[in-house]
Amino acid sequence: MIRNSIDDIRFDPNSIVTVGTFDGMHIAHCRIIDALKEKASATGSRSVVITFKPHPQEIIGRKNVQLLMTEEDRVQAISDAGIDEVVLLKFDRDFSLVTAEGFLVNMIHRKVGLRELVLGYNHTFGHRAEGTVEFAREVGKRVGFGVDYIEAVVVEGEKVSSSAIRKNLLAGKLSLANDMLGRPYAVEGFVIQGNQRGRLLGYPTANLKLVDSRLLVPAFGVYIVEVTVEGNRMPGLASLGIRPTFEDDGAPMVEVWISDFDRDIYGRQIKVTFMKRLRDEMKFDSVQELIAQMDRDKREMNEFLVKTINKQR
Fold this sequence. Notes:
The chain has helices spanning 27-43, 56-60, 71-80, 93-96, 100-112, 133-143, 162-170, 174-181, 197-201, 287-312; strands at 2-3, 15-19, 46-53, 85-90, 116-120, 146-150, 154-155, 158-159, 186-192, 205-210, 221-229, 232-241, 253-258, 269-279. By secondary structure, the protein is of the alpha/beta class. It has two domains: 2-159, HUPs (Rossmann fold), CATH 3.40.50; 184-312, Elongation Factor Tu (Ef-tu), domain 3, CATH 2.40.30. The strands form three sheets. Strands 1-4-3-2-5-6 form a six-stranded parallel sheet, sandwiched between helices. The chain has a six-stranded antiparallel beta barrel with strand order 9-10-13-12-11-14. Strands 7-8 form a two-stranded antiparallel ribbon. The longest helix has 26 residues, at 287-312. The model has no long low-confidence stretch (mean pLDDT 93).
């Protein structure tokens, strides 16, 4: 069940609770969720995840955060993981001033109910991030709840976190980012009218307006993608960038070519899943050189698809 206020959830002292933003729901997040469910199952307790909107850094850091998934998808993903109660709290300036002890005792222990708190190894909470695992343990001893934490998850020598995934996506390290996510990175958007230049090149593209402008767009370049249109998944290529062959100062765009597809999908919402990064964005001296490179990109996409299919057999 998804709750939009802490006052909407029924008090149950037999609750195993975790707290976090969970942007991206990556493999380290899933480790925490799995531990939460295992503890709840073993003790006959209720599993509860408390998360926030907007991203706390938008309030504390007063900056836009490049999200790995929309708030709606994030909350749904937590719920779909098998959690009994997901509480989505509004994170505003007043909330950011709540002390760590006030959050633990007055909000979670007294309103939600708390048998045990499960946190990520480096999670902090409360005003000035004074709440840590050790702090929570001290409060728990006084008030009467247990505290456990989950160790870091490491991929290729790097600790998995939402920040690390953002950094790798922006650096063009798609494979590493996808390994940290536990799935290929994806964005959703609405197909909007473009200049239709791709159609003249033999590669008609769908221009994308993201469903949330805060969603992170990976490093400029060309990617093999899977495009989902009305439930149908199809291979394609995505070009992210400013189209330097035609414009010197073009606005960044996400353009998607879908293989063997020629339907009118203007205004439709589609999902673009990034499977493999092929190359950087390039400026060509002629349209013919650009088309030749696009043909090579298409061949590489087809080779990738054959290898992927063979692996799955």
